[in-house]
Amino acid sequence: MSGIYIHIPFCASRCIYCDFYSTTLRNKGPQFVEALVHEMEERKDFLHEPIRTIYLGGGTPSQLGPECIRAILEALEKSFDLSKCEEITMEANPEDFVDGSWPFFEGRLLPGNPLSHTINRISMGVQSMVDSELKLLRRRHDSAHVLTAVRRLREANINNISLDLMYGLPNQTLASWKYSIDELLKLQPHHISAYNLSIEEGTPLYTHVQKGELNPCDDETCLAMAALLRKKLKTAGYEQYEISNYALPGYHSRHNSSYWEQTPYLGLGPGAHSYDGCKLRCWNVADVQSYLKGIRNEESETLSDLDLYNERVMLGLRTVRGINMRIFDDVKVDTVSQKALNTSLCTLIDRGLLQIKENRLSLTEAGLALGDEVIRDLMILDVNGFSE
Ligand code: SF4
To answer: Which of 133, 210, 320, 321 is least buried, going by the fewest C-beta atoms within 10 A?
Structure first.
C-alpha cells in the first residue's frame, strides 16, 4: 500500500515560530489547483501499489476553501486508484471553520459532494488553549474558535479529529500547559499530537530570543511538561504510539505511520518529497511562483545502505513498535563503527532508555522522553566515525 502527500503552501499570515514552506499568496488557489492537477497527470505512474492514505498538508490547506479542495479530490479520483483508500486527512486551522469560508451545508464538510472519496479526518493546529500564548505565537485563532470549529466539524459528520498542541513556549508555565491539556481533553478528540517548540534560525521567534526579548522554556520545564502530557493522556485512555502522537484505540494516523514504516509515497506540490519504497527519494523545489507556471525543478537522490539504516533508526525508533533487531546485522560498517554502535546500544539499554522485546528494539517510557537523544546515539554519520 502507498500514500499521497499534497503540499498546499498557503497561509493567511506567518506564525512567529514557523519554518515550513508557505506563502501568503492564497488568492492563487485556482491556479495552484491547475498546476497540481497537471503534476498528478504527469506522475500518476510513480506508485505501483494501491493508495491507502492521502494527506493534504501545508501551509494551511483549509485556506483553499471547499471548491478548490473538491477539485483536488476529483482530480485524485481520476488519476489514481483510490478503491483501497482508507484515510483522507486535511490539515486545517480553527479560524477557517468559523469565518464562513467553509459553509458546512447539509451536515457535510463538502456540501453536495458527488465524490466517492472525501475527507474523513481533520488535523487541526490548536497549539494552545491560552489566548495570550496564541497571541504571542501570532496564531490567528483564539480558544473560542477551537471550540466552535470542533463543534461544526462534528455537525458535518467529521468525527475523526486530531488536535495539535505545542509545549515549551516562551512564558508558558506548567500550570498553563495543564490548562491547555485539560481544555483539549474536554473536546474528546480521537487523536492528539504534541510537539516541543523548536526555535529555528531564520524565524522571527529566533530573532526575538537572540535579542533577549523572549526567553525560551528551560529543558527541565519542557521535560516536566512532556511527562505531564503523557500522564494525563494515558489516564484519559490515549495510547502513545509515537514520540509526539497519541490516539484513542484504532485512531492512529495511518498516513504518518506509513512514513515511519517507510512505505512508498508520492509527494505533490512545491517542496513535496516522494519515496519509491526502495532507494529513490525525489522532491520538488520549494518555489510556488515556478510551480504555478508548471515548473517543478525536481531533484533526486539515491539512498545508500547507510542512509537507509539511518532513516530506519530515525523513523522507526520514534514509534512505540520500534525496529527489528535484524537491522543491526544488515548494516555494513567498518569494525570501529560496529564496535561503537554495539557500545551505544548496550549503554542505552543499561540506562533503561531502550528495550528489546520479541527481537524488536524500542524506546522505554524513560526513552520516549529523551527520544531524539537516544536516536542520535544510534545513527552512523559516516563509516569512519560515529555520531556523538
Ligand atoms: S499556519 Fe502552520 S504552516 Fe502556516 S505559518 Fe502558521 S505554523 Fe506555519
So the answer is: 210
| Total number of domains constituting the chain | 2
CB atoms within 10 A of CB 51: 22
pLDDT tens for each residue of 141-187: 999 999 999 999 999 889 899 999 999 999 999 999 999 999 999 99
Residue pair 127/97 in contact (Cβ under 8 Å)? The answer is no
Is the C-beta atom of 267 inside 6 A of ligand 1? no
State whether 163 and 237 are in the same domain.
yes
Domain assignment present for residue 147? The answer is yes
> Rounded to an integer, what distance in angstroms lies between the CA atom of residue 331 and that of residue 334?
10
* Domain that residue 110 falls in: 2-260
Grid cell at residue 49 = 501499489
- Answer yes or no: is the C-beta of 22 below 6 A from any ligand 1 atom: yes
Q: What is the distance in A from the centroid of ligand 1 to the CA of 7?
A: 12
Q: Is the pTM of this model over 0.85?
A: yes
215 C-alpha to ligand 1 centroid (Å): 21
Domain co-membership, 314 together with 197: no
Burial 274-297 (b: 16+ CB within 10 A, else e): bbbeeeebbbbebbbeebbeeebe
Same domain, 155 and 207: yes
72 and 186 both lie in a single domain: yes
CA of 234 to the centre of ligand 1 (A): 28
| C-alpha cell at position 262 | 517507510
Considering the domain architecture, whether residues 244 and 313 belong to the same structural domain is answered as: no
Indicate if ligand 1 lies below 6 Å from the C-beta of 20: yes
**What is the Cα–Cα distance from 260 to 258, expressed in whole angstroms?**
5
Q: What share of the chain is helix, strand, coil (3-state, %, to 5)?
A: 40, 20, 40
**CATH, residue 343:** 1.10.10
Q: Give the span between the Cα atoms of 14 and 328, in whole angstroms.
A: 42
**Which residue stretches of the chain have pLDDT < 70?**
25-26, 112, 382-388
Indicate which residue's Cα is closest to atom 6 of ligand 1: 15
